[in-house]
C-alpha cells in the first residue's frame, strides 16, 4: 500500500491570505500617542514625523496583495481628542489568483468626539482577472472630523479592468449618514457606458465630515474650471459633510481633480 506524500494534500488547497492590521491613536499631553500599531499580512505601519499634535502613519505594502480569495482588514480607532493622519507609500493592486473566489478588503474606522482622522491612501488598482470587494465602514462621534479620499483605477496600463465593487458606509452619531455602493468591471451591466463612467477608467471620492458644515449647508458645485480631462461634483450630505465624486480617463487627471477639490474646500492636501 502506498500513501501520498504529506505535501500532496496541502498542494490541493489553494493559498489564501487572512490578515487584520490595527491602529489605535490616543490624545496625551497635547500630542497624539499610538499605543497600538499592529502590522499584519501585506500591511506594515511606519511612524512619520508628527505635525504638531497630529500623528502621521504611512502604510507600506510588503507583499503583493490582495489576490483572489484573500481576506484583508484594517481597523483604526481614534480616541477622544486625538488627531491622526494616515497615508500609504504605494497603490494597492488587486490581482488574480488560484482561488475561484473574490478577494475582500475591509477598512473599519472609528473616530471619537473631538477627534480627527485624515485617511488619504494611494489608489486601488483593479488588474485584469482580479475580483475585489472593498467595504469602508466609518463610525463617527457627533463632534468627530474626517477627511477621506478613495481612488480606484480600473485596469493597469494597456489592459482591461478586473471586477471591483466598493461600498462606503458612514454612521454619524449613531445614525447612517451615507451608504453608497458602486460596481465596475466584466459581467456588470452598463458600468462603462454613458450613464456611469462613459469610457473613463479612474474614479475617486473625497469625503469630508465636519461640524462646521452643519449650518449653513453648502450648495452643490460642479468643478468645471479645472484644466484636466476630469469631471467632478461636490454635493452636501444630509448631515455635517460634503462628498466629491470624480471620474477621469487616468490616475493623473483624477489626482489633479482631487487636488482642485482640496483647494476648493480650503483643505490642506497631503
Present the secondary structure layout.
Elements lengths: L6 H6 L5 E11 L2 E8 L4 E9 L2 E8 L9 E8 L4 E6 L3 E3 L8 E9 L4 E5 L3 E3 L4 E10 L4 E10 L8 E10 L2 E10 L17 E8 L11 E3 L7 E6 L4 E8 L2 H14 L6
Parallel strand pairs: 1-5, 4-6, 5-8, 6-9, 7-10, 8-11, 9-12, 10-12, 11-13
Antiparallel strand pairs: 1-2, 3-4, 12-15, 13-14, 15-18, 16-17, 17-18
What does this structure look like?
- This protein is mainly β.
- The chain has one domain.
- The chain is built from two helices and 18 strands.
- The strands form two sheets. Strands 3, 4, 6, 7, 9, 10, 12, 15, 16, 17 and 18 form an eleven-stranded mixed sheet that branches.
- The longest helix has 14 residues.
- The protein is globular.
- About 2% of the residues have low confidence.
- It is found in: Cytoplasm.
- This is Urease accessory protein UreD.
- Its main location: cytoplasm.
- UreD, UreF and UreG form a complex that acts as a GTP-hydrolysis-dependent molecular chaperone, activating the urease apoprotein by helping to assemble the nickel containing metallocenter of UreC. The UreE protein probably delivers the nickel.
- Pfam families: UreD.
Amino acid at each position: 500500500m502506498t500513501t501520498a506524500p504529506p505535501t500532496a494534500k496541502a498542494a490541493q488547497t489553494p493559498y489564501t491570505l487572512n490578515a487584520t492590521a490595527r491602529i489605535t491613536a490616543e490624545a496625551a499631553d497635547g500630542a497624539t500617542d499610538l499605543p497600538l500599531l499592529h502590522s499584519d499580512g501585506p500591511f506594515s505601519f511606519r511612524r512619520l514625523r508628527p505635525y504638531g499634535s497630529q500623528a502621521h502613519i504611512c502604510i507600506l505594502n510588503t507583499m503583493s496583495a490582495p489576490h483572489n480569495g484573500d481576506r484583508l482588514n484594517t481597523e483604526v480607532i481614534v480616541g477622544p481628542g486625538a488627531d491622526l493622519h494616515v497615508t500609504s507609500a504605494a497603490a494597492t493592486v488587486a490581482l488574480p489568483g488560484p482561488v475561484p473566489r473574490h478577494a475582500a478588503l475591509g477598512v473599519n474606522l472609528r473616530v471619537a468626539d473631538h477627534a480627527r482622522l485624515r485617511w488619504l491612501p494611494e489608489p486601488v488598482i483593479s488588474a485584469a482577472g482580479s475580483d475585489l470587494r472593498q467595504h469602508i465602514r466609518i463610525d463617527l462621534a457627533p463632534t468627530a472630523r474626517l477627511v477621506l479620499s478613495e481612488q480606484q483605477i480600473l485596469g493597469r496600463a494597456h489592459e482591461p479592468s478586473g471586477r471591483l465593487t466598493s461600498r462606503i458606509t458612514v454612521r454619524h452619531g449613531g445614525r447612517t449618514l451615507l451608504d453608497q455602493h458602486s460596481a465596475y468591471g466584466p459581467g456588470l451591466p452598463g458600468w462603462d457606458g454613458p450613464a456611469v463612467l462613459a469610457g473613463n477608467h479612474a474614479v475617486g471620492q473625497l469625503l469630508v465630515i465636519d461640524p462646521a458644515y452643519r449650518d449653513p449647508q453648502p450648495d452643490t458645485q460642479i468643478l468645471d474650471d479645472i484644466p484636466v480631462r476630469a469631471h467632478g461634483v461636490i454635493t452636501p450630505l444630509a448631515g455635517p459633510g460634503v462628498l466629491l465624486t470624480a471620474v477621469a480617463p487616468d490616475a493623473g487627471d483624477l489626482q489633479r481633480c482631487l487636488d482642485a477639490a482640496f483647494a476648493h474646500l480650503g483643505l490642506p492636501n497631503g
